[in-house]
Amino acid sequence: MKFPAILLGLQFAAAVCCAQVKVDNLLCENRTNPLGMDVTVPRFTWQLSTDKRNEMQTAYRIDISDNANFHGHVWDSGKIGSDSSVLVSYKGKPLQSGKRYYWRVRVWDNYGKASSWSETAWWQMALLQTSDWQAKWISPGYAEDTVNRPSPFMRKQFHIHKKIRSATAYITAHGMYEAQINGQRVGDAYLTPGWTSYKNRLQYQTYDVTNMLKEGSNAIGVMLGNGWYRGIIGYSDKRNVYGKDIALLAQINITYEDGTTGVIISDDSWKSSTGEIRYSEIYNGETIDHNKTQDGWTQPGFNDGQWSGVKVEDYPKNILLATYNEMVKKHETFKPVRIFKTPKGERVIDFGQNLVGWVMLKVKGKPGDTIKVWHAEVLDKLGNFYTENLRAAKAEDTYILKGNGEETFEPHFTFHGFQFIRIEGYPGDQILPEDVTAVAMYSDMKPTGTFVTSNALINQLQHNIQWGQKGNFLDVPTDCPQRDERLGWTGDAQVFSRTATFNMGVNDFFAKWLRDVAADQSPAGVVPFVVPNCLGFTQGSTGWADVSTVVPWNMYLAYGDKRILQTQYPSMKAWVDYMQHQSKNDLWQTGFHFGDWLFYSRDDDTDGTSAITDKYFIAQCFYAYSTQLLINAANVLGKQDDVAAYTALLKRIKDAFFKEYVTPNGRLVSGTQTAYTLALNFDMLPESLRPQAAQRLVENIHAYGNHLTTGFLGTPYLCHVLTRFGHNDMAYRLLLQDTYPSWLYPVKMGATTIWERWDGIKPDKTFEAASMNSFNHYSYGAIGDWMYRVMAGLDTYDDQPGYKHIRVMPHPGGGFTNATASLETYYGKAASGWEVKDGKTYYSIDIPANTKADIYLPASSVNDITENGKALAVDKDISVGAAENGYVLIKAGSGSYHFAAPAPTAPTVTTSK
């Protein structure tokens, strides 16, 4: 009798255990076990894992120690009554440079259950004080070839006399660097130290090199490249933007088993020379000559007797900061989908995807054989290799063989945007597919969003949006990755930023870049066209400079990251104040503006059909928008004096707009799609005039044969405005339009990324002007935001951003039979999907633990909807409101929900934001 009772007890205990909430996915400053952090008040994030519905955290306890066994506490928060589980701030004693800390967390839920402790996570601090740097800046000691500027190689051999407990390397450079210790590559990041406003901010990287060092002789070797620092960047062969020098700063801090410490530093004991990298420029490519290889130069015992010394330089260290964002790494690889000869007889390889990175070659040949590899995005009308749109960028890698068996080549300090390569000089008659590999490279952001529909063309559009983001999020948000530009254009980032937050975790990516926006902002508040500002322009263009307000607010909405607003608030305010100072009677009608860049325009515009929007009209709209975002940020940060002052300013801005740009009958002086879209999206019109303005927008679209005519500034908001004002059918019509100009025209023309122009390739297969025709340019991919937040209906609220309070409001339509968006939020997976089948629409919705959701489903009555086959009235897990404006409101907590309702015909859409 005892055995069954014991067994029953064990089963009950197991059930209780399984019913407990679990804590996992621990993040410190948005990263898993980050190494090298100079944030002195780090923030912690964790997820609740459970199968229960309506699971909420009611309390947490964070425990931090300087050892993995938690013997002693650096900070024990104690039990804190709070549902906060995202970006919870550290409140312990000051943290120490270079030290590793271990942390764990447990929570209590709303069912009275306490979790077990989570698994242990850790982070390691970087160098917090300038005085922590013992290393010296060093530059090559030899006379440099100032024309080709071969990559400097620097090395040092050193001896370790004791057993090592831990070792951490800190490295940065003027230029780019790649390091090895004892023949092993240090880290898996590329193009380090990344691109920042170098005169104000220079990042260094931190590496755990414990297992790379050994007792006895060791060696460290570092290659340098020109990079953005002194390489060709910007226009007109511009170089040496930040300095003519190339230099290294490296330090290895060692802790021995006996508790003592040591340090290896860059100083005058190092040696310098050159090696196989004979030329390297971002735009032009790299030349590698294996006959110049110095075998074993990064290993101990190498004879560097013929090497030169180094020069110790007095470059600043007070601008150094630890790396905050994800570094550029290798990702997907592609094998050739075809290898062929063009009509011109050139040997070309097609990888089937427009990507950013480089090609790895395996080859056998004779000493001195020279292989040249050119890169291109497209073929011309006749099927020949096309590079005119690269402008002055040569995008050419040259490899010279040593002739000692199979050799492998790949670049180090350059990157290319391409789908095709042309090869010249490859030994033999045939190139084997297994010997050629294209490698995609981009910042190591976590993929977060998926979007799938019943329409294959829309699915390809989503693919193109994601690959446009991958190819252009290469440490900074670039405008194009292939031609002689590749700059951090602020307008492009502004229009795409909300879409970007869905596809990838870009919180750290933008946090880092926004600090450079502020660093390069002028004392008067002007935000330059590109950041980092290598062009030197000090003008602020509307829609471009507004990156300083738009992107911080979008990051706050997507991630609930209040610190971004705190950090960027002075920059936000400075830009709004600049516009105010430039205005007269609250109208901003001065300065240079790009306007609605690349809007629909006809070369033979004899009948006025080019969609030209007055640039000062646009400026006034963005002046109002940035002011509103500043007010929003001030409210979040508790700056009530600013709220009052800028609220009064906003009213004056809108009054001035109405007086200057609206006729007595409610027409806008610019009658374009962009004009009506901006005026409606930014609430520039009185509510009474908004419906007729929306109708005029629709009439304009009809006048262009149901095509959009918007450029960079109007496109992101066009479909949002149509849906908001009851014209969701027109939003779908524009989405599904597949003739020029439209989102699907490039898709039908074979695009695998987003194009810079609506008609980069014309229907007759000729090209737009080569002077500005990128085939990988993410701006028009901003339609993704409408697809995710409106079509699938997965959104968040301002009151509890970052998907703490989730808004689900799907909009079935457009002839689609299904659409689903899923997003890995800080709380877990949120998803909204719908499927039309057999006269009904089925909705599948996932809400992560520790969040709540307002779910709006198209239906005329509560009684029309069931959840898991049950009437809503008997479902105790949810609460239901009455039907209003064609939607039923359902309030729900965490869990997976499956609703069914009659298929809507044309749901009425509320005109509130």
Quick tags:
913 residues, Immunoglobulin-like, Jelly Rolls, ten-stranded mixed sheet, seven-stranded antiparallel sheet, 47 strands
Low-confidence parts: 1-18, 907-913
Radius of gyration: 29 Å
Number of domains: 5
By DSSP, the count of extended strands is: 47
Supply the helix-strand structural class: alpha+beta
Strand count, sense and barrel status of the largest sheet are: 10 strands, mixed
**Percent of residues in β-strands:** 25-35%
Outline, from the CA principal axes?
A: globular
| CATH class assignment of the largest domain | Mainly Alpha
In the CATH hierarchy, the third-tier topology of the largest domain is known as: Glycosyltransferase
CATH architectural designation of the largest domain? Alpha/alpha barrel
Oligomer: single chain
User: Total number of helical segments?
Assistant: 15
Terminal residue distance? 66 Å
Question: How much helix, percentage-wise, in residues?
Answer: 10-25%
Walkthrough of the structure:
This protein is of the alpha+beta class. The protein folds into 5 domains: about 1-125, Immunoglobulin-like (Sandwich), CATH 2.60.40.10; about 130-325, Jelly Rolls, CATH 2.60.120; about 330-445, Jelly Rolls (Sandwich), CATH 2.60.120; about 450-790, Alpha/alpha barrel (Glycosyltransferase); about 795-900, Maltose phosphorylase, domain 3, CATH 2.60.420.10. Helix content is about 20%, strand content about 30%. The protein is built from 15 helices and 47 strands. The strands form 10 sheets. Strands 20, 21, 24, 25, 26, 27, 30, 31, 32 and 33 form a 10-stranded mixed β-sheet that branches. Residues about 1-20 and about 905-913 have low confidence and may be disordered. It catalyses: Hydrolysis of terminal non-reducing alpha-L-rhamnose residues in alpha-L-rhamnosides. GO terms for molecular function: alpha-L-rhamnosidase activity.
